[in-house]
Design goal:
Shape: elongated
Order of helices and strands: HHHHH
Number of helices: 5
Number of strands: 0
Oligomer: single chain
Strand content: under 5%
Length: about 140
């Protein structure tokens, strides 16, 4: 039970509760938070510039979110093992990519949201970036 709590519960919490809650924030709701903060830091910035920065922050948060998901998946598959297995990278990558695809598909079912291939590619890039770092860090152990 301790093994499950330590390795799998953070992953399940992320996938089932934390990420969907963050993902449910619409562009309008984050815009109303981020843009006033940006205006405070950048008082002379034009509205189109603020909108562009807001969009980049949203995309970067997805990049980081899927990178963190890939890390949690790798960590859960690795468990207590000290030996590196390439299959853990593969499993973490496939599940991250599939989760991102499902996320974009479900967004198409919500009237105020749209899923996009571009967003999915950002999600995939975040997951792959972290998995490549993990691979290079651990390749000598395998």
């Amino acid at each position: 039970m301790i093994y499950f709590i330590y390795y799998w519960l953070p992953l399940l919490a992320w996938m089932l509760f934390i990420f969907p809650t963050n993902d449910s924030l619409t562009a309008d709701s984050t815009f109303s938070i981020i843009v006033p903060v940006l205006k405070w830091f950048l008082p002379d910035a034009s509205q189109p510039a603020l909108e562009t920065i807001h969009g980049l922050i949203r995309k970067f948060s997805h990049f980081l979110g899927y990178g963190f998901l890939a890390y949690l998946l790798f960590r859960a598959f690795r468990g207590k093992s000290r030996i590196f297995r390439h299959k853990w990278i593969l499993y973490a990558g496939l599940i991250s990519v599939g989760y991102g695809l499902l996320d974009e598909f479900f967004q198409t079912l919500i009237t105020s949201r749209t899923g996009s291939f571009y967003d999915w590619m950002i999600d995939v890039a975040g997951a792959i970036s972290v998995l490549v770092i993990i691979y290079h860090k651990n390749k000598a152990k395998g």
